[in-house]
Design brief:
The protein has eleven helices and seven strands. The chain starts with 10 loop residues before the first helix and ends with a helix.
């Protein structure tokens, strides 16, 4: 998906719509999966978690698997029924690998993401995930207005709950930022400023001198060697550090040959 449909709000509105996405986990049996889902949500900028009758919660394993997303767990709402979990939502989206005759027509996740955000522009939207073993029941699916599936390998569609939450939240994030989410990863700068024209010309003069000294270049019959080297280095858009490295190599050659 390169561009969202024209009917979608502008990107800042889509970004704010992420705050109105409610991830609902129904009858989750393993606390570790709740933690994994919280971690998946936080990495994609989705923060609202609702649990329907979880087997075990709160739990230390949920905190451990959240890997720092324990604030999502601390603010999670715990409900006794799906109806209670969906209270206040304008729309509910069932996430299910099974295509059923009952319930809304299924859409794959990438196709559905812009529509989900469009709906969230008007109010809260719930993504409903079922139990790890049995998934969502027919009754739960019928309580939703949309059905979404992840187009996995048809011979093996089983996804871990945390992975399923991750994929849906990722598609929503990509749609919200129109395919260009901000990159905030801190990296060590590697590039140096581009070399000036004078730096490059001094490199060419140094290189030509060494090639003549070593006999590689005949100054009487230079042919097209220097123009070809100029074209080569011109394509490279040399940086200041690279010029220094190349001239350091040439200095070493000159010292070696005396």
């Amino acid at each position: 998906m390169n561009q969202p449909p024209a009917s979608l709000p502008r990107s800042p509105e889509l970004e704010r719509a992420l705050d109105r996405i409610r991830v609902v986990l129904s009858h989750t049996s393993h606390p570790g999966n709740i933690g994994a889902a919280a971690r998946a949500m936080k990495t994609m900028g989705v923060s609202r978690l609702t649990l329907v009758n979880p087997k075990t919660f709160p739990h230390d394993e949920a905190i451990a698997r959240s890997a720092g997303a324990d604030d999502i767990l601390a603010n999670a709402a715990v409900c006794q029924s799906l109806g209670e979990a969906l209270d206040g939502c304008l729309y509910a989206v069932a996430v299910s690998a099974r295509h059923r005759n009952l319930g809304p027509k299924p859409m794959h996740a990438r196709e559905a993401a812009p529509e989900i955000l469009n709906l969230a522009a008007d109010g809260e939207v719930a993504l409903v995930f079922g139990n790890e073993t049995s998934g969502l029941s027919n009754d739960e699916v019928q309580r939703c207005q949309r059905t979404v599936f992840i187009p996995a390998n048809p011979d093996y569609t089983s996804l871990n709950l945390g992975a399923a939450v991750q994929l849906l939240c990722y598609e929503l994030r990509m749609a919200a930022f129109i395919g260009q989410p901000p990159v905030v990863t801190k990296v060590v700068p590697f590039a140096s400023p581009l070399a000036t024209n004078g730096d490059v010309e001094r490199l060419y003069a140094h290189l030509e001198r060494v090639m003549v000294t070593t006999g590689f270049l005949d100054p009487v019959n230079p042919k097209r060697l220097m123009p070809k080297l100029r074209r080569l280095f011109g394509r490279a858009e040399l940086e200041r550090d690279e010029i220094n490295i190349l001239r350091g190599i040439l200095d070493a050659v000159e010292k070696k040959i005396g």
